[in-house]
Amino acid sequence: MRLIRAELLKARRRQATYVMLGVFMGLMGVIYLLAGSAFQFIGIIDFPVAYALIGQFAFGLGGLLAVVYAAAFVGADWNWGVLRNVIARGESRARYLLAKAVALAILLGIAMLIVFAFGILMTYVTGLIWGVPVASPLRGSGLVDLVEWLALGYPVLIQRAMLGLAVAVVLRSQLAGAVVGIVLYLGEGIIRLMLTGASLVGRVGQGFEDGFQPIGPEWFQYLPISIGDYVVNAAPGGGSSLSGGLEQFLLKPVPLELALPTVLIYLVVSLGVAIVALNRQEIT
Amino acid sequence: MIEAPAELAVATRGLVKSYGRHTALTGLDMSVPSGQVYGFLGPNGSGKTTALRLLTGLLRPNAGQIFLFGQEYSWRDRKRLFRVGSLIETPSFYPYMSGRENLVVLAASGPITPLARVDQVLEYVGMSGRSKDPVQTYSLGMKQRLGIAAAMLSDPDLLLLDEPANGLDPGGMVAMRETLRWFTRELGKTVVISSHLLHEIELLADVVGIIDRGRLIREGQLEKLLEDAGRVRVRVEPAQMAQAAAILGAIAPDRPLYGIDSGDQAGLFTVNVPVARAAEINRALAEAGIYASGIEPGSDLETIFLEVTGTGGSVGDRPVLPA
Q1: CB contact under 8 A, A88 and B58
Q2: Which of A19, B96, B161, B271 has its CA 20 to 30 A from that of A148?
Q3: Complete DSSP assignment for B202-248
């Protein structure tokens, strides 16, 4: 517990924590205001439509920022040389890293709640600006939808953060961890798109006697970032992830019963890789 | 299996550490007695920091053994480090947090450390007044003080300090010296201190170990080392160094002769002969028309260090003289 408290204190004191959240909410606010004109055609802004929008921000762009923040949160110990203070005091490397992971999970949980609260606020602000009435977020299945979004999105967010954590530990640097994390995050999207195209070409070769049917799930839909999208898409009103689009018409989604355990496996494997890497490292 | 006597706080036997093709330690055998200050000396790149990193579990040895408090220590035996406090290389802290907060988060790791101890060690190193300021506003000397405080945080039985005097002002050095003396003499704890400041080590250390190219080449009680290394220091005009070197070299032909041929100390010879021969040296120089501006009996750590590591400028067989 004392290690987790210490990690939370480090995060609270670090400017990057607030800058990251501020940048994210700023972007979200701007996009909300710019895209708000589309609400005019809806007649009424309802939830879960708004939750879906918030969720896509929180677990799309938010997932990317989680990778970067996790890499910065963990990798800084190498950059500032503070890791050797801890190891030289006889602290367990695994315990130290686990404490960091738990602290990250707590921080991201808080950030997620803040983002959802901010998103709900922005929904009202946007409705007010564009003169579109906004339904209560608790109307109908509103509360259940919200809980479902948070429950499905949270493990995805943590899994992505653990990916950033693992990369930073293996590379022993916050910057390298963040850069490689971003490249992995965006690179996987591009690779998935290319592989989707390749699969489609193969499908075209077989003809369309029964009309066009989505193919898959293909192996590349189980890659670490992609699989999280399928979990988030299973939330009410979900289904148009940032990296989705055309792919969703071409590929069958990975069912939640498979996608969620896969996300959890990635989460555990990332953390395991990080612990093994740290245990083997020599601290210079 | 090699045993290390229980009265040794630290012992290493045949310790080897390589970084790729470079071997930093080639079989280090050091013995640090409990309750004393051990001055760990060596030229740059001799392996001092590598040795300290091995003692604190940051690195794994390729071969050899480490004993902490009389028992063999392995890399995975991390809880043994609960009795060790260390400052390795530069003091490292989170720059955006205050000195006190840095110690609070550090106290959360390793052995259970009461928070009251944080304020206590800040007091020891004279940092209470600035403890709430961010570390990024500290001078190097202040960071060094904070590093020493961090090393003392868990009230360790053994302190490993790598160049702790770096950046300290004279007042800070005196305070550090007094704190470490109190630590060993009053509390009976052990200090291993590596430093380039030989004068500082001479004032502080009870035992000295000199390492060169990864191997311990001299170790013993400082007093005894100085006594054994009988020598006379002679100062002549720098312009007369070549002539003086020939005369002094003849006085002790089988012993190395050291001379400094540039800088403030130019003209200073160290003749490795018993102090009783100081008069003979003076006479021999005077007969050749060289009048020494100073003849000091005795020895110092610097001379021993330069001699055993071969890092001093010799003017014995091949004089190195100013143009």
Answers
A1: yes
A2: A19
A3: HHH-SEEEEEETTEEEEEEEHHHHHHHS--EEEE--GGGHHHHHHHH
